[in-house]
Design a protein that fits this description.
The chain is an alpha+beta fold and about 200 residues long. Helix content is about 40%, strand content about 15%. The protein contains 6 helices and 4 strands. Strands 2-3-1-4 form a 4-stranded antiparallel beta sheet. A hairpin with a 7-residue loop joins strand 2 and strand 3.
Amino acid sequence: LYQRQLEWCLPRGGWFLAGAGVLLAASLGSFLWMGRAFLPEFNEGTLTISAVTLPGTSLDESDKLGTAVERLLLEVPEVTATARRTGRAELDEHLQGVESAEIDVSLTMRERSKEELLEEIRERLLLVPGTNITIGQPISHRIDHMLSGTRANIAVKIFGPDLSVLRDLARAVETVARDVPGAVDVAVEAQANIPTVRV
């Protein structure tokens, strides 16, 4: 059966190539109207909140900030429990200093929408001084890390040899990004020249 079809197709190869070209052009053309996200927004029933302060912050101070964030979260009626990790070990696949805390938040949704809940949480967490707060969900958070290497859906990375120039550029980008409609949790990753000891 295959041999007979092949014998019929080979003399008409030009037509088949033209047809394949038309199909290829149509598929590439349809790309312009397709959505850009491969995954829908998740509704996991939990949140992952990242609270990062300045590099070099002591473990005790970072613990106080993390505790303050957890207290504010537990005042929200939908929040049923929190669990916090402060820093990550050097050999962990996701190395973080003690200035960084991840808080897993369990939710029980009530009458209000998720957007209203997130708005209240963001307003409450503005009360914690000196921290960059980002709010996501566990699976979404891991996917964002795999795609961009950051906790955010969108990351702007600036490279160069001078840290002070990079900070100025980052602040300029942050100012512009805050004015983008729908942008939330806009923050510059805190980086500083600090002395370190490797043990």
